[in-house]
DNA sequence: CGTGCGGTTGAAGTAGGTCAAAGGGTGTGG
DNA sequence: CCACACCCTTTGACCTACTTCAACCGCACG
């Protein structure tokens, strides 16, 4: 686990993700890679990396594993506001706000880099392409959050679940986590319900409908999209909001 | 309208907003004020300032008037994803994405400053406090968007509408647009429905319920919150996510 | 071998949607 | 100055997509 080769691989998803948004300079890549290796951390499944109210003083970059942001109402109702996938920088900039207004929990074991704020700021100052890539990432996250608002506000259950699956599929691709038409999908139906604003029971029935329509298979934490076009159609999905083209 | 005094006043909401997030330097204020005055624009009510797919090459800072961001599905369903209030910088950073993934429409006549990207970037480079304030603003907007996800996903109609009213009230305060317990509220029930993910009919009945509970008055585009604590209670509202304390 | 979690099923209830029509205010054109 | 049109609001009746409750199943794990 501590051979240079393996460690180099660890940073791959992040670099792929950022480089897809904004071409990184060689120097930027090297600096980033070093910062990542110096801040390596692990967390188990079902842990909360941060809670509402916590002070924020570092940036976390996810190297492997899935997480989710969520908020909980006083009476226990829970809403997942986004999924954080390998290569995502969670809180690249949230730290500007000093205090967490939401929580972050792991859905799987996770390997991440914890980069202290001053280190991160030096990183951005040292390489313009890195700074721009991180800002782009932040803006894409905002765009995703807007789309979730639309999804939950105006799509019916079937469209809503389908849309979420399309989004995750599309986001996993650039970081190389799609294998054919399948991908890991470590999200329980409970999580899916909390992410879509539906009840577990209804998510269950909705998934069955998607399966019955031969659009997807979802078993043993593996999602297979059998008919991507079909799924996108019923989801009213267009990938524009993910801004996968290079920006800036 | 073109006396220096009046023009100075125009920029007030923006400066108050940004300064509340991150104390601005004298120099920063002066630079910002100049950039604003050089880019003054107007728009009428019901105009779209930008549409999905449009290229983005400037930042708009709202000096007076209300706008909303929204997305429309193919079949006409519409979701407002946020309200843009006086003092807000719409797209302070969205321009990084090059293409709009949503539209922006006016709810009232609007006065705004259109600042071209290179000018804006020079502004940020010239004064650190301005740069930080704008980034903070962007992060607060993300936080608001997350809360909307929670609102629409997990709150019932009554809570949801109440929460939206609380939020707007709270956001108008720092820019000095609250008069006692009243404020302008140029949002139709149609808009309210599109913002909350409800139907117009149900928004209407929900408002009546809030009125019957003597929590609010809403007539002639004026909102009066008669019992703020009560409204916040049923909305499960806490202002934390608005990060009104200085940050950074 | 129990215990607990996630998934599945059925039955019954309800929050909120849809449809349709009517009322009030305002602006416009004849 | 009236009439008409348009937009927003309001109301009533009916409908349904989704929730809730409750139970059961299968599987992994201690």
From TrEMBL, chains A, B:
It comes from the Bacteria. Residues 155-229 form the HTH crp-type domain. Pfam families: cNMP_binding, HTH_Crp_2. The keyword Membrane does not apply. Gene3D superfamilies: Jelly Rolls, Winged helix-like DNA-binding domain superfamily/Winged helix DNA-binding domain. Keywords: DNA-binding, Transcription, Transcription regulation. SUPFAM superfamilies: cAMP-binding domain-like, Winged helix' DNA-binding domain. This is Crp/Fnr family transcriptional regulator.
């Amino acid at each position: 686990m501590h051979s240079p080769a393996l460690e180099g691989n660890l940073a791959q998803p992040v670099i792929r993700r950022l480089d897809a948004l904004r071409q990184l300079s060689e120097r930027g890549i090297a600096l980033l890679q070093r910062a990542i290796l110096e801040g390596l951390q692990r967390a188990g499944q079902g842990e909360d990396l941060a809670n509402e109210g916590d002070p924020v003083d570092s940036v976390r970059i996810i190297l492997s594993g899935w997480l989710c942001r969520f908020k909980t109402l006083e009476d226990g109702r829970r809403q997942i506001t986004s999924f954080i996938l390998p290569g995502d920088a969670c809180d690249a900039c949230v730290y500007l706000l000093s205090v967490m207004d939401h929580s972050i929990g792991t859905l799987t074991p996770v390997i991440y880099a914890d980069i202290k704020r001053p280190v991160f700021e030096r990183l951005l100052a040292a390489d313009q392409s890195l700074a721009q890539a991180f800002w782009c990432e932040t803006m894409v996250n905002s765009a995703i959050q807007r789309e979730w608002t639309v999804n939950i506000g105006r799509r019916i259950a079937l469209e809503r679940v389908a849309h979420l699956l399309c989004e995750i599929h599309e986001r996993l691709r650039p970081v190389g986590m799609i294998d054919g038409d399948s991908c890991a999908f470590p999200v329980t139906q409970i999580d899916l319900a909390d992410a879509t604003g539906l009840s577990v029971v209804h998510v269950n029935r909705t998934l069955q409908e998607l399966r019955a329509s031969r659009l997807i298979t979802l078993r043993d934490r593996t999602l297979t999209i059998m008919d991507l076009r079909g799924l996108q159609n019923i989801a009213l999905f267009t990938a524009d909001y993910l801004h996968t083209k290079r920006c800036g």
